[in-house]
Every structure is written in structure tokens, then in C-alpha cells.
Amino acid sequence: GDKRLEELNVEDTTCGYCAVGCRFDLYSDGEEILAARPTAEEDAPVNGISTCVKGKFSYDFVNSDDRLTSPLVRDENGAFREATWDEALSRVAEGLGAIKDEHGGEALSVIASSKATNEDNYLMGKFARQVLGTNSVDNCNRLCHSSTVAGLARTYGYGAASITTEDLELADCILLTGSNTTEAHPVLATRIKQNVRDGADLLVFDPREVQIAEYATQYSRVKPGYDAVWINGITRYIVNNDLHDESFVAERTTGFEDVKEAVQEFTPERVEEVTGVPPEEIAAAAETVAAADACVFGWTLGLTEHSHGTENVMAMANLAAITGNLGKPGAGVSPFRGQNNVQGGGGDMGPLPDNFPGYQDIADDEIRAKFEDAWDCDISPEYGYYTTQMFLAADDDDVRGMYIIGENAALSEPGVNHAEDVLRDLEFLVVQDLFVNETAQYADVVLPACSFVEKTGTFTNTDRTVQMVKQVMEPKGDSRPDWKILQDLANRMGREWDYDSSAEIMEEVSSLTPLYGGVSHERVDGEGGLQWPCWDEDHPGTERLYTEAFNTENGKADLQAVGYSEPAEIPDERYPFTLTTGRVLYQYHTGTMTNREAGIRQYSPNNFVEIHPETAAELGVESGELVTIESRNGEIAVPAQVTDRVGPENLFVPIHFADSAVNRLTDEEHLDPAAATPEFKVSAVRVRPYEGK
Ligand code: SF4
């Protein structure tokens, strides 16, 4: 605009796209976002002055024409009409209340939002348990890193990255797997590339030769679905050649002998046969990791979105521990979290079926009593349903009503043909979002929430840093911050909530959550972020986990023997290809935000499938031509992109496009037994040239 920047509102805030947690100053004239500029470097611990295309330019969605500006309810013909907050909230209170009265609170479930603030999410968990009387509250972490959380919690104690972001630059070696870092976590990729330029080794194991592999000192193509096999192969090489860190193993771990025994079956020949990685590559990677003074093990969803993702993560946790790569600068495990606030809002704040905030187990009597007392309600010790289980439970009417906040389940759930049926058949569905997304099409009531530029609170990024999010413009139309909507609803449903600000909510969080014991808005703002655990007001926060002890009963890492496992769907004659899913740089998740950006649509307008040149030649298709991909669950038609980035037996389709949603092909029943994460990364499919309809 014409206005000079100094005349505008400006706030230092945290990016609302990915969990890198970049900070920058946002400028607004009160009605729209006009610019994002670097903030003072000391206030931007993760990114300094860099940001990526999304953080810098992607704000059109805030003022998009189809932004929801008023509540919607169904009229007598079943169409949406605008309603007052009063009417909409009454309908919600009645709809949810009726199911609760008739079938008990357990018949209701809540999907909380990893896009929303910590304060919003704390209240979503509290609302589910206190107001609705259900433990079935979960969020999108179930679809991505819940196997990371389960695997790391079991071995080390905390389900989170042990490193601080700077360690990506301090490491001598980085082993990356299942991470398209350049596209999904751009600013982290920049820091990794810088370190490689300075001489660090980068080992990339991935079914796709993703862009970061161009910088790798070693790239190994792996067959999707067998990660624990090649990881155990590396561990075997290390222990059999006495390259492990003996004193670390002796002093800081238990279970080493079991692991050593369990990895013996993963001989070089077997690893090659199962994963396609030749013995010399396993040996080279093992030598490099063992020789490094400090190594970071980084991964994203390629490791976790499997029916045995938790085992994959534990295999990686074993490798990091036996090489002594924990609790020191430049070393550790780093699951790169996806959504801006999935670590905080999706995990730490406890909108989870099994945990209260700070990973406090709901089955623990003492802990449950603390929350029953604080929230003045009874809470069942029985775990509720995980997100993926909610959709299966709805088939048997064990879930009858849902409250879905900032989550586009109709596209993001595995097996969306099934998810659509569930959403359509629910007795009552409330959707709270910025847009009438694909999920809202099935709602009885839609409540307009506001985005991160219109509210104040905190996000917790991928390295456990709690950072401020500040309001720079007024909520659009009649939209409201999630916490205010929840407060109104709680009060209509017989409770007395009386928060004046999100800062007050954080006070309640810290009083009940030891991990966040010293976290307050005042400190987070004043100190430019705080990394948990932060036990009390005098505690400075924790850069790196496990410098002295692991968060286990005896303080030692509890190594877990991991054997052979395979994906639920194995390619066969009918479905000979393995499909994996993932992201592209310009887009974000189901595209609800980014597909509203004119600039982004220009670069990334359409869905596609990556097909290896040999496969394309066999099919007789060229780039740009439509192909039909079919699994046991459904089919989609997408244009081919012929590339050797994927192997001849693999296909890759991104997750961002509603018109040919790749989750029509994935399966809703193949879940990790410990974490209930779906197997997005392996579906057996067949492919043929599109024949039209
Ligand atoms: Fe935002 Fe992530 Fe890009 Fe940083 S890297 S600007 S946090 S989307």
C-alpha cells in the first residue's frame, strides 16, 4: 500500500506455518498484513534473519474472500445460513449436550488443532474432559509424529527433539531420513546446508532422492516400509566392529546386550535384500556416524507414518545412544515437527486421550486427582480414542458427535472415502475453522475462528522453544480466537470460565504442568523464548535434553530391541507399486491456507504423481499426461511427472490437493500398535494411463 511502514502496527511474532518457529516482524494497517520483515536477531533464535516463502509472503488467506466471518448453521433445507454467535453456540450446546445426556460423554470426541496456540489447545483438552466428559480428544500429531513421541518417550523419556536448533550447525555428521527438509522445513535445510558447506557429513536415506540429497556426502535409496532394517544394519556394523561408545553405553544406558543380540539378524546381505541398500553403503554410513564427534539424527514422517513407526523410531534412538550422541553440543535426535504448534498445542498441552498437559498420564491416580481437583470434575482413568480410532469407533456408533477444530479431517485422515462416510453419518458435527473447508461441508454448525495474526498466545516449535504469537490486526468479521469460543461454550454448558486473556490461561497451564512450570507470557516475551523443561520461575529453560540424565526411572536410556517388521500392504501382482505421500515447498498440508495464495497457486497449481522413467515408458505415458492410480481403497487421476527422483517400483503423490486427494488411496485400518499412526508412506497401488470417464 501507500502507507509508510512506520505508520503501521508492527509486532514481533512467530510463523504460523511450520514448526521451525521462525520469528519476524509483521506489519499491518489493522485490516491486512502488509509485510513481514526480519526481527531483531536475538529475538529470532531459530532463523536469525531468514524466512521461507511461506513466512514471508503467504498472508492472502487472512483476508481471502471466502474467509468465514460469521457462524453458520443449517437452515430447514439443510443449506448453510449465517447466524449470530448466540444462536450458533446454543445449537452447539444443544447438539453436543443431547448426545452426552443420552449416550454419555464418551460418545463425543474432540479433534484439537496444532495450528492454534498452546492456550487454545490447553482449553480444548480441558473442555473435552471437564465440559463434555470424554477423554477422546486428540489432534493431527496422530497422523504424523505420534510414533516419534511414543518411541522416544519409551527409550529416553521425552517425546521430543533432544537438540536445540543450533546443533544442526554444530554437528560433524547429520543422518537424515524420511525428511524432504528443503521443502518441508526450509530454514532448517538452510542451516544444514551451511554446515555441510563447512565440512560436515550429511547422510541421506530416503526412497526419494529429495533435494537435500544433492548436498549429501552419501545418499542411499531405501525401499519404503523397512527403515528399522537398514538402521539395525548400521547398528549391527557398529557393535560388531566395536565402534560404539562403550563408556556412554555402560554409564548411561540399559538394554545394550538385548539390542546387540536383536540386530544380529540384519546381516549386510539381508539388509540389501530387504531394503535395497548395498553392504558397502551400510558400512560407510556406520563408519561415518561412529567416527563423528557429534552426530544429529534427523527425521520426518518417512520414518514415522508406518504401521511400525514406533519401532523405526526406537531403532534410531538405539543408534543415537550406542554412539553416545545425546546431551552434548552438535549431537542428538531431531524429529522435525510439521505444524507450527504440533509440539506444544498437539502434545505438550495435552489435548490427548492418554495424557494431561506435560505428558502426565491420565491413568495415574495422583495426577488425575490433581486435575479433577483443579477442574472440578470427575475424569475417567480409561484412555479415550486416538484420532484415527475415533473414525473407526464411529462405525460402531461408539462416537456419535465430533467437535473438530482447525483440522481438515476430510482430507487429512487415512482412507478419506471412509472418513467422509463417518463425517456424513455423525449425529452432530461442529467445525471451527477459518474456512468452510472440506470437513465443514458435513457440519451442523460452523464456527469462525481467527488466525495467528489476529490473536495472542504462544507456540512451541520443533526444538521445544515456547515463543510469543502477537495480535497484529483485529479478528476478521465476527471471527474469534479459539479460546474465547471455548469459554463461551463452556459457560453455556454449565461451567464458569472466566479468563480475561491468554496470559491467564498460561498461568493455569504452568500451575498444573511441571514441564512448563516457569513459563509465563512475561518471561517468554522478555527472554525471547523459553525451551522446556522449564521447571520454575528461576529455571532458565533447557537447551539440550539429557545432558546429565534421561527422563526415565533410573535416569538411563532404556534401549529397546527392535526386530523385523514389514508394511501392512506389500506389493503383489495386482498392486505392484508402492505409493508414498509427502509435501512440496510452496504448499502447506491440505492447502486450506496456501491454495488461497495467488502467488503460490502460480508455482504449485496442480497435483501430480512422480513416476520413474522406466515405469512411464512401460505405461506409455509422458509428463503431463493423466494416469489413474488405484489401491484397494480407492482411485484418483493425476498428471504424471516423469522423474528418477523416485525408484522404478515407487510412486509419489503430494498431500495438498482436494480434487484428487491422495488419501483416497491410503488405508484407515493399518495403524501403529503403540501410537495409532496410519501407514501413509506405504500403499500398494497399480497405475494405468487415464481412459476418461
Ligand atoms: Fe515459517 Fe517454517 Fe518457513 Fe520458517 S521455515 S518461515 S517457520 S514456514
Automatic annotation (TrEMBL):
Q: Which SUPFAM superfamilies match?
A: ADC-like, Formate dehydrogenase/DMSO reductase, domains 1-3
Q: Which domain of life is it from?
A: Archaea
Q: Which keywords describe this protein according to UniProt?
A: 4Fe-4S, Iron, Iron-sulfur, Metal-binding, Oxidoreductase
4Fe-4S Mo/W bis-MGD-type domain location is 8-66
> Keyword Oxidoreductase: yes or no?
yes
Please give the InterPro entries that the UniProt record associates with this protein: Asp_de-COase-like_dom_sf, Formate_Dh-H_N, Formate_DH_asu, MoPterin_dinucl-bd_dom, Mopterin_OxRdtase, Mopterin_OxRdtase_4Fe-4S_dom, Prok_molybdopt-oxidoreductase
User: What are the GO cellular component annotations?
Assistant: membrane
MF GO annotations: 4 iron, 4 sulfur cluster binding; formate dehydrogenase (NAD+) activity; metal ion binding; molybdopterin cofactor binding; NADH dehydrogenase activity
User: Among its keywords, does the record have Transcription?
Assistant: no
Instruction: Output the SMART domains linked to this UniProt entry.
Output: Molybdop_Fe4S4
Question: Which biological process annotations from GO are given for this protein?
Answer: formate metabolic process; respiratory electron transport chain
| Name this protein carries in UniProt | Formate dehydrogenase subunit alpha
Q: Which organism is it from?
A: Haloarcula salina
